[in-house]
Design a protein that fits this description.
- About 50% of the residues are buried.
- This protein has 2 domains: about 180 residues, Rossmann fold, CATH 3.40.50; about 200 residues, Dehydroquinate synthase-like, alpha domain.
- The chain contains 14 helices and 9 strands.
- By secondary structure, it is of the alpha/beta class.
- Helix 4 packs across helix 5, helix 6 runs parallel beside helix 8 and helix 7 packs antiparallel against helix 8.
- A 7-stranded mixed beta sheet has the order 1-2-9-6-5-3-4, with helices on both faces. It has a two-stranded antiparallel ribbon with strand order 7-8.
Length: about 400
């Protein structure tokens, strides 16, 4: 079993088995006396939620629970959460769950003292400077999946309830003050969630590594995260009680999110639209699109992929060999090969291409892509035909 430890990069992280028992100490250290717990309906009745509640009640910490968070959180979810936060006079947020609950919790904490609309803080230019810093509540983030890494992010992804477009909301103080990484909370994950969220973390690391901006620190973190995932995701999938595999996957997810401050790419450009339009789980969308995006970017990433394959001990180092590795990994994790298998409507390709081109992730793709490129990427991922991306 990996040892319990604390570190302070990129924020304060308390890592180790049974660290959920330290939640009251975390609240006290931030002077949070009445937290709002933000989670979702799937988690609120599970034993791990009771573990959190017990740890608070044993130390007489009063709390409120808001659990009406959708798998792709919406602006209305945030508005409802802020209303509950203010009505109950909460003074901090415990974001507990997967990426959706973490994103919703962070955004509720951010919006709890703002007078402007949430959409005024979309990650465009210096919109974040509009925020009332005094009105940002402190957040404790506790992930129960090993995927998004939102616990160490300064941004959230929120779906506009009317347009269904996904918007990135950013502020430096969205970064949670304390993160509790407790592998025990991930043991009960369904196998498909372990697979989807694990590949989500992998995509974060790969796209960060391949982003064309110069950031050697992010590259190093991303490469190590990819190696940890390669070594541990199949183990966690096959044996959900594997203590070290679960612990390593939690850390790798956090590392991937730390690295992607460098940028993401076209996998996310498309996946964001599928989440907004069809409510497709983000990790599933990323898992399916990844190999097609790598193939489309091949001429711009070959040197980096050779280096990555050598680091991972993949034979015949090349983009082609890495794609073959991803395809075999997907089979091992029983992930669909195409978006059509995931019941995604293929008739809206042009619309998705246009929306994806406007997505912030497109600007840091490994190479410049057009609306047509992204339309063809969606069509390739939908049909399973790699040849489409060459047209």
């Amino acid at each position: 079993m990996l040892p319990s430890t604390n570190w302070n990069y990129p924020t304060t992280v308390w890592f180790g088995h049974n660290r959920i028992e330290d939640i009251s100490e975390a609240c006290a250290s931030l002077d949070i006396k009445k937290p709002l717990i933000v989670t979702d309906d799937a988690l609120v009745s599970l034993p791990i939620m009771q573990d959190l509640i017990n740890a608070l009640e044993e130390n007489d910490v009063k709390y409120t629970i808001y659990s009406d968070v959708q798998p792709n959180p919406t602006g209305k979810n945030v508005e409802d959460g802020v209303k509950i936060y203010n009505e109950n006079k909460n003074d901090g947020v415990i974001a507990f769950g997967g990426g959706s609950a973490l994103d919703a919790g962070k955004t509720i904490a951010f919006m709890s003292g703002q007078s402007l609309s949430i959409w005024d803080f979309e990650d465009i230019g210096d919109n974040f400077n509009k925020a009332n810093i005094e009105g940002i509540a402190k957040t404790i983030a506790i992930p129960t999946t090993s995927g998004t890494g939102s616990e160490v992010g300064r941004a959230t992804v929120i779906t506009h309830s009317e347009t269904h477009a996904k918007k990135i909301i950013f502020h430096p103080q969205m970064l949670p003050s304390i993160v509790i990484l407790d592998p025990n909370l991930t043991y009960g994950l369904p196998k498909h969630i372990t697979a989807w969220t694990g590949i989500d973390a992998l995509v974060h690391s790969i796209e960060a590594y391949l982003a064309p901006t110069f950031h050697p620190m992010a590259d190093g973190i991303a490469m190590e995260a990819i190696k940890i995932i390669k070594d541990n995701l199949p183990k966690a999938y096959k044996n959900p009680q594997d203590e070290n595999a679960r612990a390593n996957m939690l850390v790798a997810a956090m590392m991937g999110a730390t690295a992607f401050q460098k940028g993401l790419g076209s996998v996310h450009s498309i996946a964001h639209q599928l989440g907004g339009l069809f409510n497709t789980p983000h990790g599933l969308a990323n898992s399916i699109i990844l190999p097609y995006a790598l193939a489309q970017n091949a001429d711009a990433i070959e040197n980096k992929m050779v280096k990555l394959c050598e680091f991972l001990d993949i034979n015949n180092p090349s983009t082609k060999s890495f794609i073959e590795y991803i395809l075999e990994l997907r089979k091992e994790l029983e992930i669909p090969h195409t978006l059509s298998e995931a019941k995604i409507d293929g008739t809206r390709a042009e619309e998705i291409g246009k929306l994806a081109f406007a997505d912030p992730s497109t600007g840091t793709n490994a190479k410049k892509v057009t609306t047509l490129d992204l339309t063809l990427l969606f069509k390739a991922a939908h049909s399973g035909n790699f040849e489409l991306i060459k047209k």
